[in-house]
């Protein structure tokens, strides 16, 4: 028991950083006066907007985007300044973009409102005045006692008071919170277990003091003070095992009672609504760079035209014509102001060079394209009955730009399906066989010990396996002193623990379960042994061990500990280590996961001291974990080593082939694991991260054992390895990949302790920077293995590589909670839907069932996503430069009078209707290379690496192509129609007809250019390409065929129909389109010749290519789209 009183003997309630909750909202009379705390109600509000703030708030958020704000400024300039084009030309496209986005966001928010109402209006039962009262969920207050029935969802965060079971436990699933579908056991404190009626609950006088709301689902610190007839309150510690989270569901338990501690937006589920930090792809950064370039082009054009206008007008012969003479007001206007307004007018005239609709198209492309990953049946795993999941669509193209892959080992490269193989007791090796003698059979081996260990030591070791764990048991039949008719099902978050318990069962010791803190074990003689569980010293990734303190039926108090060898060996008596250490190393070389088992006896006096310390630490609300860790560290010393276990974790299917393909694609793969070096190294050989001819360079504790001069020895090794690599391998990165196949391959192994030395090394000028030299070594190695890594060290490694020169794109993949930090740190995070929970999948950008799916995700999906969106970005800038360049050239022929070349309707509709759908369809469906080819030939991935399609070279190509075609549009039309009389009545065309011809050639050319680029035709491509051209023709006839009453001037009336009535116009349009596309046609012919040659070479390689994978059973895209392609 624990109590805290002031000088007057009164119980202290409330402190900084905590909250006090009175059970049933009945203040306890014996507590000191405290300030009443106000808590939020239980309403969940996941929506962003209300009916009243939607319009201003949404507009504010949209105009925070630079492009939208830019077009708003252009629109305001058109409204306030006498500009050559109508405000409609920029206002309507902007209105369209803003409206579409607002409708999308408004609909999504309406769905959130609807979902919130379903939750808030659901029915719950509250215990008030010893009666069950029916209420709406949103009316629950902190302190209310809530009754929850089986298969119901908890309406808020509750502290479990009691359940229908005699031991006060209940089973909960948290699939909606963290994706874990297995049942978890939660416990009530022993003082409230018996309160199973409304009357007894209402009579309870208790106060709960706990931490303020925080989002971590797996952490909770609190204590409950229970007041009875005695003067002193009984205090019990509360942890995450006592907390029932909102959103979780009650399973296999008839009903429970719980007191609300966090409600509404303060529940852990609500606090987890906030998203992860936004990641930006390399393509998005390229778009911003291109926007700046085109903005400079726009400003340059406006400045040139403004300057030339006044130069042209400076000649007396080129002044304003008589019908455009300046008014008296204009003459009085300052010339500088007039030049500024002219500059703004030219900016308005040329502003369409910035593609307003590109952002909407890119967002739609990313959103719709992400479904192809979810729909891909190759990612479906029958074992878990799930496929791939896209948590963010903003990074689709980044999958095609990965340079480094950081992968966990256990559960990612391996199955995380553990099987007990063998064990070592006092240096004697034992293995599971079908024929057993006394439960154990000894096997031959390289170890020098051949005699069996002492019988008592064998039983002690097996008891340790049955007692030191967190395994729970499910029984189909009641266990009443015997297990003969019962089928035991073991449940645990750790597959290792289940394997060890099952291993002990095979050797004759059976774990029967834990009831009310009493563990029952059946020994080899079929006798039931009972132990009282006094304390559990939980496992964590820093300590790398766990312990239990138990009391035997004879009254002896024992501590059993199991953990990694590096965590246990320093805490046992040294003379016992060597024999078992040799066994551990032997098993690790075979690729087995090893754990060491130790114990010690605790005297009653020592236990009294330990118990007091643990109880006090568990009652602490501040720094509870740090205090417990210090106590654990003190308890787990001077232990006796009993033995070690070896558990096999088999390699995942196709893991080796996947890593081999990633290497062939030019990616560097690093394995970051918490396992010991020997186990991890064996796994790396098995999955082909290391080849048989790979020379391994070690930077581990073993290689720098000299405790007095560790840093000096580390420095020597770093210099030695750098010289070795620099001598062997070429300096350039491009030739490095070639060198991997022609020269000696090197791999690096480093452990967590050495990494800490490197990262924390002194940075004085007299010595080399350890971190810099270490990175140089890593860059020259074909593969890197980092073992004994803590979770934060994994993130440090990723961050270190991310910050390298050139900012390489990093990808992290893992399956456990210890991988979350590196998943969040990397550019792209991928979670495996594994057996260690779903924390990694929840925090990832993408989640897949198996590691093998990474191959297709990167080599096929990533490749195609990048090519599609890169082409989309380049095409948008290209077609807008084609659009505006004739407008710019026209100013040289109209005295820089800001006369528009195109009609306002065409200016408005060009980006919205005439050219938007073909590129959207292309960016969703294009397969420039067959999917099976992309998978079977990983080298194709290298061709797009380094953001290759959005570099300066391709950008200049598209820009010069647009400049060429825009020049052909204008001057071709100008020279062809300069003197000719083209109409039947002998008249020549006017300026609007001239502009319409240019615009017609423009629309057909940019659309047919996309048709030429399309290599994978579907009915959708045909529909949008030819449909867009047909719509343009229809619209032109319609727009020019009616006298529109809202227009002041009917300048386009009958222009299009009259233009097409001339055969010369038809011939001119066709000729100009052909001239514009002729360079593209020549390039396509040359590429096809090269492609046929490459196809012949590829077919020869495939005959002997070991990377060749079986063809996909279905296409990547939709069922109606064939995987067949007309190339490669």
TrEMBL record:
Mg(2+) binds at residues 408, 410, 815, 819. Keywords: ATP-binding, Cell membrane, Endoplasmic reticulum, Endosome, Lipid transport, Magnesium, Membrane, Metal-binding, Nucleotide-binding, Phosphoprotein, Translocase, Transmembrane, Transmembrane helix, Transport. Its EC number is 7.6.2.1. The keyword Nucleotide-binding applies. Its cofactor is Mg(2+). Belongs to the cation transport ATPase (P-type) (TC 3.A.3) family. Type IV subfamily. Component of a P4-ATPase flippase complex which consists of a catalytic alpha subunit ATP11C and an accessory beta subunit TMEM30A. This is Phospholipid-transporting ATPase.
């Amino acid at each position: 028991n624990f109590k805290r009183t002031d000088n007057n003997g009164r119980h202290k309630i409330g402190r900084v950083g905590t909250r006090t909750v009175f059970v049933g909202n009945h203040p306890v009379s014996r507590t000191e006066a405290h300030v009443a705390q106000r808590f939020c109600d239980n309403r969940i509000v996941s929506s962003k907007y209300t009916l009243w703030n939607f319009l201003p708030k949404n507009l504010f958020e949209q105009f925070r985007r630079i492009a939208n704000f830019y077009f708003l400024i252009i629109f305001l300039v058109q409204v306030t300044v006498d500009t050559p084009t109508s405000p409609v030309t920029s206002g309507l496209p902007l209105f369209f973009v803003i409206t579409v986005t607002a409708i999308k966001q408004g609909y999504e928010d309406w769905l959130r409102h609807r979902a919130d109402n379903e939750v808030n209006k659901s029915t719950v039962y509250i215990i008030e005045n010893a009666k069950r009262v029916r209420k709406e969920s949103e009316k629950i207050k902190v302190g209310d006692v809530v009754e929850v029935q089986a298969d119901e969802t908890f309406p808020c965060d509750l502290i479990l008071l009691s359940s229908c079971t005699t031991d006060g436990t209940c089973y909960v699933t948290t699939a909606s919170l963290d994706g874990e579908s297995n049942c978890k056991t939660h416990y009530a404190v022993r003082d409230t277990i018996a309160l199973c009626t409304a009357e007894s609950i209402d009579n309870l006088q208790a106060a709960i003091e706990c931490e303020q709301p925080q989002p971590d689902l797996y952490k909770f610190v609190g204590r409950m003070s229970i007041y009875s007839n005695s003067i002193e309150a009984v205090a019990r510690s509360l942890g995450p095992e006592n907390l029932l989270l909102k959103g979780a569901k009650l399973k296999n338990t008839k009903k429970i009672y719980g007191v609300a501690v966090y409600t509404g937006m303060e529940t852990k589920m609500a606090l987890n609504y906030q998203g992860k930090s936004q990641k930006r792809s390399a393509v998005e950064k390229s778009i911003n760079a291109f926007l700046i370039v085109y903005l400079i082009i726009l400003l340059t054009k406006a400045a040139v035209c403004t300057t030339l206008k006044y130069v042209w007008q400076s000649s007396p012969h080129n002044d304003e014509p008589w019908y455009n003479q300046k008014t008296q007001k204009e003459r009085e206007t300052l010339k500088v102001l007039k030049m500024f307004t002219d500059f703004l007018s030219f900016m308005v005239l040329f502003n369409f060079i910035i593609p307003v609709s590109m952002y909407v198209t890119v967002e739609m492309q990313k959103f719709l394209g992400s479904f192809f990953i979810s729909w891909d049946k190759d990612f479906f795993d029958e074992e878990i009955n799930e496929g791939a999941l896209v948590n963010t669509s903003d990074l689709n193209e980044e999958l095609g730009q990965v340079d480094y892959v950081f992968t966990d080992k256990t559960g990612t490269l391996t199955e995380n399906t553990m099987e007990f193989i063998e064990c070592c007791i006092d240096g004697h090796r034992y293995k599971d066989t079908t024929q057993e003698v006394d439960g154990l059979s000894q096997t031959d081996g390289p170890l020098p010990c051949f005699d069996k260990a002492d019988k008592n030591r064998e039983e002690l070791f097996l008891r340790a396996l049955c007692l030191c764990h967190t395994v729970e048991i499910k029984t189909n039949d009641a266990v009443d002193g015997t297990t003969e008719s019962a089928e035991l099902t073991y449940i645990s978050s750790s597959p290792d623990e289940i394997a060890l318990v099952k291993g002990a069962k095979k050797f004759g010791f059976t774990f029967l379960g834990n009831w009310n803190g009493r563990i029952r074990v059946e020994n080899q003689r079929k006798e039931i042994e009972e132990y009282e569980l006094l304390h559990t010293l939980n496992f964590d990734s820093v300590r790398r061990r766990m312990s239990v303190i138990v009391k035997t039926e004879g009254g002896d108090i024992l501590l059993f500990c199991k953990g990694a060898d590096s965590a246990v060996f320093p805490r046992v008596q040294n003379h016992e280590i060597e024999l078992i250490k040799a066994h551990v190393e032997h098993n690790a070389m075979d690729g087995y996961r090893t754990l060491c088992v130790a114990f010690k006896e605790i005297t009653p006096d020592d236990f009294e001291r330990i118990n007091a310390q643990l109880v006090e630490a568990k009652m602490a609300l501040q720094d509870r974990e740090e205090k417990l860790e210090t106590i654990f560290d003190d308890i787990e010393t001077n232990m006796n080593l009993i033995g070690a276990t070896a558990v096999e974790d088999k390699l995942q299917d196709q893991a080796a082939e996947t890593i081999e393909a990633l290497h062939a694609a030019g990616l560097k793969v690093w394995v970051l694991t918490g396992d010991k070096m020997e186990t991890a190294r064996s796994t790396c050989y098995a999955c082909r991260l290391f080849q048989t001819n790979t020379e391994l360079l070690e930077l581990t504790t073993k290689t720098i054992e000299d405790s007095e001069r560790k840093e000096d020895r580390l420095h020597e090794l770093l210099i030695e390895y750098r010289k070795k690599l620099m001598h062997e391998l070429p300096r350039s990165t491009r030739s490095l990949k070639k060198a991997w196949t022609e020269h000696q391959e090197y791999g690096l192994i480093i452990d967590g302790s050495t990494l800490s030395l490197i990262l924390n090394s002194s940075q004085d000028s007299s010595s080399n920077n350890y971190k810099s030299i270490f990175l140089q070594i890593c860059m020259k190695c074909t593969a890197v293995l980092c073992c004994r890594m803590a979770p934060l060290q994994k993130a440090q490694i990723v961050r270190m590589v991310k910050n390298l020169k050139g900012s390489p794109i990093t990808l992290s993949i893992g399956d456990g909670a210890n991988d979350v930090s590196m998943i969040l740190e990397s550019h792209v995070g991928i979670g495996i839907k594994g057996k260690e929970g779903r924390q990694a999948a929840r925090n990832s950008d993408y989640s897949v069932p198996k590691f093998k799916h990474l191959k297709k995700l990167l080599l096929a999906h990533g490749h195609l996503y990048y090519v599609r969106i890169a082409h989309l970005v380049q095409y948008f800038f290209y077609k807008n430069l084609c659009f505006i360049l004739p407008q710019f050239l026209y100013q040289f022929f109209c005295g820089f009078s800001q006369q528009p070349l195109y009609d306002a309707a065409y200016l408005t509709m060009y980006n919205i209707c005439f050219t938007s759908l073909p590129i959207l369809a292309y960016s969703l469906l294009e397969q420039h290379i067959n999917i099976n080819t992309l998978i079977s030939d990983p080298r194709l991935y290298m061709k797009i690496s380094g953001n290759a399609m959005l570099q300066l070279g391709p950008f200049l190509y598209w820009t010069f192509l647009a400049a060429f075609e825009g020049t052909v549009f204008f001057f071709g039309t100008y020279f062809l129609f300069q003197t000719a009389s083209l109409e039947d009545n002998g008249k020549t065309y006017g300026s609007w007809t001239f502009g319409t011809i240019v615009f017609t050639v423009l629309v057909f050319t940019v659309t047919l250019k996309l048709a030429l680029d399309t290599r994978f035709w579907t009915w959708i491509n045909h529909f949008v390409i030819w449909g867009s051209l047909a719509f343009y023709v229809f619209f032109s006839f319609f727009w020019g065929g009616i006298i529109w009453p809202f227009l002041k001037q009917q300048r386009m009336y009958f222009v299009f129909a009259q233009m097409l009535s001339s055969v010369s116009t038809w011939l001119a349009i066709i000729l100009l389109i052909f001239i514009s596309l002729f360079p593209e046609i020549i390039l396509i012919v040359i590429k096809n010749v090269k492609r046929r040659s490459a196809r012949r070479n590829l077919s020869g390689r495939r005959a002997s290519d070991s990377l060749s994978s079986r063809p996909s059973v279905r296409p990547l895209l939709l069922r109606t789209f064939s995987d067949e392609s007309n190339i490669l």
